[in-house]
Predict the structure.
Amino acid sequence: MKNASVGRHMLQATLTSALRDDGPKRSFRNLVELGEKFSAGRRQRAFFTDIREMLRKDSSAYYLLWERVVHDTDQDCLKTFGINVGYNGCTAGVRTLRALERLHRCGIPSILGTCYNGAEMDGKTLEDLLRQGEKLGIFTYIVDYRGGDLDVLAGILAAHKDAGIILLTGDSALTPQAVTLLTVRKNVMLAVSAGRPDFSETCEALRGAHALCCVYADYDEARAADILSGEYVERIGAYSDTFVLLLPGEDVTPETGAAIGAFAASVRREQRWPFILMELREDLVGINRSVSRCACVVRFDEDGRLVTRHGRAADPALNLRTLPLLEIFKKTIPLE
């Protein structure tokens, strides 16, 4: 823990210096070099090396992405969220995670997803999940807000200041007061649903408030062709300075998910747009394979039951209310 704290402070100081560098291209390249330096393993270093090679192209859309995000986003949010995900999650946390994988002979995902509705999935359950996850070395979470008291949720997110949390905000009223409350620790990225009626207005308001935010869209089989044409993604991506996340519905077949995952990967390789496109199910499998050595997607639904890339677990005992997190992993995630 002491070494991790020292590493975090060193990285924070270096990040501050990098962000002050002249010009977005130079500062972006500095950050990629930092990523290589602090990477925990061969695959992570290879990822940053690939990014560095991509950035040799002066016309890369990712330079525009970086220029926008630096201009439009609170830099303390950028640093805190980036360190929580990039260092706590992918470097210091991974050391803990891999040691526990070896000890218990099971996979442990580097990213966890869960719902929050203030009822079945209440504050106590979410708090317990985050507490257990951090002990296992997990510091990156995707929380799907589906109702409940935002004050309670905000308090839980603030208490876990070392985690990086992407909050799928649903149709919640993102008033200036709510945004301040949810991001007080600067460890939360607010994700705006492309399906909400005030989508564009909400995105513009968050950008004006310098909030760290992204865009997400649920999709089904009927929407797949529109996504693959690029038109839909380009349209909603115009409102994001960071990520566009595509979330597959229950009716999306593995074949369709794989096709959209391949499309997202090709868009990133080509640096086609000034945002990072991800098909969440496919890309989380790749991230977990790379970081924690288990090709999996792990989230928990409103009842606390495990949901994997293959759907809802058939065994009702695979539930946050019945078993500790580690026991669920032991029963369901083999090491690769």
Notes: The longest strand covers residues 213-219. The mean pLDDT is 90.
